[in-house]
């Protein structure tokens, strides 16, 4: 088993293969990150939110974010109760979106570095390494039909529950 504590040197070629068609954009951010400039705004993360995380295949980060959002909503409900207005909800959602937009690229680059390191630690032949990096860096569209199905099921459940007689 590969030792995770050994630092792995990630060459530019590895990053280019991992990032694929958006390589130029992310390599530029990668270089800025190496210089200590980690924050820049990602408009896709701002507008797509958790769907952007799923699209970028950052499932661990997505899970952590959903846990944080669940805790935040629970605290919000406990503090504000049912008295929170639509304005409060909009402001809180804008704060969530802004934070994800601001930190999205930093999170993605951290995740990319983790995934690239995992492939490189396997010490495979170069061609196999490049194939695995391309697979690890690819995006996923599975979340779209799953999300649409889940939202549809949620709406149906809410409608069904609202039609049930109260005790």
TrEMBL record:
The keyword Membrane applies. Signal peptide: none annotated. The chain crosses the membrane at residues 38-55, 61-79, 91-110, 139-158. Keywords: Membrane, Transmembrane, Transmembrane helix. This is DUF2628 domain-containing protein. It comes from Hymenobacter telluris. The lineage of its organism: Bacteria, Pseudomonadati, Bacteroidota, Cytophagia, Cytophagales.
């Amino acid at each position: 088993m590969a030792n995770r504590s050994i630092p792995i040197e990630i060459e530019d070629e590895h990053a280019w293969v991992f990032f694929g068609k958006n390589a130029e954009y992310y390599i530029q951010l990668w270089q800025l990150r190496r210089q200590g400039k980690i924050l820049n705004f990602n408009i896709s993360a701002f507008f797509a939110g958790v769907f952007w995380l799923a699209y970028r295949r950052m499932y661990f980060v997505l899970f952590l974010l959903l846990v944080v959002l669940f805790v935040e909503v629970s605290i919000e409900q406990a503090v504000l109760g049912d008295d929170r207005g639509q304005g409060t909800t909009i402001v809180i959602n804008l704060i969530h979106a802004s934070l994800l937009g601001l930190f999205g690229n930093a999170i993605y680059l951290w995740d990319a570095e983790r995934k690239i390191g995992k492939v490189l630690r396997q010490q495979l032949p170069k061609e196999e390494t490049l194939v695995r990096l391309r697979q690890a860096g690819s995006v996923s569209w599975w979340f779209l039909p799953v999300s649409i199905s889940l939202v549809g099921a949620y709406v149906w459940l809410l409608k069904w529950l609202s039609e049930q007689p109260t005790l």
